[in-house]
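Quick note —
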Amino acid sequence: MPKNRIALKINFRKNVNERSTSYGKFYPEVDRNETLSLRGLAQHIKDHGSIYTRDVIEGVLIKMSECIPELVSQGVGVKLDGLGKFYPTARSVKGGIEEANLKGVNASEVVKGIRVRFLPDRANLDNITSTAFKEKCSLESAHIVETKKVDGKKVMTKIPIADWLLQQGSGE
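Predicted structure written out below.
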């Protein structure tokens, strides 16, 4: 395993739902940073030693981002080897429809939405399903996330775990 991997920071959030059987317990969540734009992804690919310039890579990615939704809207799944498969699913009206109503059924009336789903690649070399992908990450505990209402707005605060423990009187 490479030693110079950047750690995936994991924050912990307390369950504050008093009706939950998990009330008061902390659960992990990924500390998400920025979202890379298509241009940023193209630059990242170029920086990995690609022989292609950023604009060529960006052009291919733009075409891909146009073609995948087009194909999926036609019922065609698209598999990107090493990444996974994009495919469509339908979201139905609540309760579905009765057999007696199938004659003359109008799909537009019973389909509430079409979702684009993603299924990670499971091939041995490229397996990025949740458990296998975890092994490819270097995890690091980072913060306690607290959400409080301030002037009627939800404000999220990230406190380093060691500092939070000191505030609670349980640090060493």
